[in-house]
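Problem 12. The chain below contains 192 residues. Write out its predicted structure in token notation.
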Amino acid sequence: NESAYLLADIFRGELETALRELEAEKRRVVEFESKLSDSRCKIEKLQSELEECKECLAVSEIEASKLSEMLSECRTEKAKLQRDNGGDLLDSLRAELRLSEIQIEQMEEFLNQVCVKDTELASESGTNKNVSEEEELRGRVEELEKQVELQRNVIKEREEEKREAIRELCFSVDHYKSRYIELVRSLSGNNN
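Solution.
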């Protein structure tokens, strides 16, 4: 009987420990899910920025193509003017040409920045580590829940065994008590 009580206490202690661990694990899962939600929002934002960058890149490529054509036309005009000795006009065209070259350099720099950002976004959105961690945590939580349920069942069985042992003990006590009363009466009757 004492061993049944001890066993029940042990199982109760283990169940309480498992429940605390389960609650802690659930809190970690909730925190992780919150972080995961934040990460998903960031990824969606980055993907949106990536789409905007791609659109800017397409526009920039068109602009770069136009500037390249303008540069080609300017060079053609420059060569023509050098042949025609148009000094003043040539100087103004050189300034325009230099401006066009600066614009092309700026566009190329912008394109490089867009490519770098695109690479960064692709590397950030490509991580599946959070998903695998979440699946691992959910698996652990399910495993702990199963263990807790098993321990609950064992404790219920032990409690039923304890109740049965107490019933038998009460029956035995009643039996010995009635035998004791009979013995006392018997001895009292002999003394009279």
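Discussion. Residues 2-187 form a domain with the Helix Hairpins fold (CATH 1.10.287). Students who got a different answer should revisit the alignment rule from Section 12.3.
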